[in-house]
## 1
Amino acid sequence: MIGYEKRVLENGLKVIIHEDPSTPMVAVNVAYNVGSKDEDVEKTGFAHLFEHLMFGGSTNIPDFDTPIQEAGGENNAFTNSDITNFYELVPAQNIETALWLESDRMLQLRFSKKSLNTQKKVVIEEFKETCLNEPYGDMWHHLSALSYTKHPYQWPTIGKGMNHIANATIEDVKSFFYHFYRPDNAVLVIAGNITSAEGFFLAHKWFGSIPPGKNQKKLLPQEPEQISSRKKIIHQDTIPHDAIYRAYHMDGRLTDEYFICDLISDVLANGRSSRFYQKLYKEQQLFSTIDAFISGSSDPGLFIIEGKTMPGVSIEQASEAIDRELGLLMEENLTERELTKLKNSLESSLIFSEISVLNKAISLAYFETLGDAGFINEEAERYQKITAGDIRNTAKKIFRVENCNELIYYKKVGI
């Protein structure tokens, strides 16, 4: 059980303090409730751009890395479809350095054409490197657009295309910042060697005077139920193997189905004892790599299967083999031994993740953006109550042909 206290400042900032006197460190985590799903369809990639811009200097601080390093700490950030998250880990006595940095960039970034152009170039280069120059690098672009017709999950976090970032103006950036990166759209977590009283005092000292925004979260279009399968075929000469990707629609992060699907992905592809590894990789040698995972999104997401075939193995053979394994899940219950082993492994992973004060800070902030930081203490129980029947029934619901979006890469052979 992870204990914490929560208060909301007058400007709307949610503050959560988790005391852990066993560590000499303190983690400071700020999660903004904005991700790529909140972007305009004609201006995508902005949340990811802001992850970079937030390190480009704020109104009083030109450089973020040097003060943190001098304080003996580390900092980083990540963005996904749902949130933008910034964190620092510092010795407890230097906590105010981290709070100073985070509060100043929440107050106001240093908006300049020079900074914007610098970060735009960085993001565009990242787009080229990861999406255009890597084999299968455009997978998320194709699979997302294939799977979603209405919901803004239809584009990846990095954005639809380089032109959206290239065309971003100072006015666009300011508007996005003052709409989303405000205290009333954020969660501050302070976790580690600090008392709740001191934590709340420092939170108010550094963040209490920052004005709130006028954030009105728009209602996102809900994805309609998929009633027929979709397929896209791509021929590329830069890929080493033919590949198959499948995406099946599943429920969102807070539902029981989410936890069941997470367990199913472990049945299929978590480790050397998993079914895909044992049957399709080791025994039948159909794939050079094969995996199954869930997108982990807040709104209804995707259960994804990806496999790269061995030379001489056709996509048809690979697809039939995957279907056989999914069919077994839909037809037969897992044994109690297999189910217990999976649950114990998941629970061990959860316990291990809670050892790190930084991981606890990130998780508390994330669950609070979902509605309640207390969800962090419910996960283990939700996995433990899953039955073999739940897995079979969910597999039947998820792995229907009409619920499948399939992306196929064929290696283009030169003439």
## 2
Amino acid sequence: MPGYMNRSLSDSWGTPSKIKEKYKNYYDPCPFPKPAEYNGLDKDWLPHKLVFVNPPYSNIKPWAKKCHDTFIEAKNKGIPIKIDLLIPARTDTTYFHDYIYNIAEIKFIKGRLKFVDLTGVSKKVTSAPFPSIVCSYYNKPDNV
């Protein structure tokens, strides 16, 4: 028996509807069904002011970096912005310490999120095999 969880064979897991509803007015740089064709990493997030990121969990680091860099840019320019990043609670990773810890507010989600298989293979929601967190980067300039 391996001492670790097997990695999912797919990144096609939809944001739970309860969370999706909370962020319905936010810009989504990782839209399904074709996030590979729409590369939110290449887009400018600053004009949107409200950004919700549920990145492909097989490649979180560049998304965490983009959240961090966009937040720092907004802060330096005095532009108000709120970016929420939904990811597994992997606090031991390099990207967590480089781009999240001591920069974003971290909110632990109670229980396991239930994701929807967007490929249609599984007809039921599936509990994540890991705890989740929302990392909130929030900048409200002093003069607002």
## 3
Amino acid sequence: NSTKWRIMTLGDHITDSDTQWFVQEIEFYSDVDCTDDNKIPVNDTKAIDSNNHGQGWSPDRAFGHYWKWGGLRDDNDMLWIGMEFDDPVSVKCVRVQNSNKSPASELRVQA
């Protein structure tokens, strides 16, 4: 269980670019099969990220807003996006839909 969950990648795992990562959608689940009945709601949570392209590219865009997150590296040369919950949650499955532009070929989930 954790109050913060993030999906991260390194620049050399970005297919089209080493400076940006675009994510269409992220969903967290409390079961290992990512079934819709066990989707963790993110309505009253705070989206967090390594950095982004500014207005219109914020991390909340990848959590059910039908847009995309335009991510940039942090000071440690990592790209990441996640969610901060008020109470600890147990995430057992994550569904990530990369954008067609600058998708990541390898991801890691961190609590």
## 4
Amino acid sequence: MTFIALDVGNTRLKWALYDSPRTDAVLLSQGAVFLENIDQLAEQEWKNLPQPDHTLGCVVAGEAIRRRVEEQMEIWDIPPRWVVPSAAEAGVTNGYDYPTRLGADRWVAMIGAHARM
């Protein structure tokens, strides 16, 4: 039951494939590509990966980049799941007037830090 985590920043896409969607999961493979190269993921870096059973990603680079990543993920028969900041989650309150304006990467980092405390 593999799991791929995606972090799509403003410069690079970073990914990691784990043996399961758990905090103590074993890392199977990982990589990073500059955004100008994401259109080659399915034919290069992801070509020989086993199909993940689960996905979860953060995108701060915008909708156009997110769509390009989703096109590459079509090699797998699973729907991509993306983190979207909300007003509150897992004991953390988002103080933004418009919660979705907080970067998904920062939202996940705050929730993770809160969980570790």
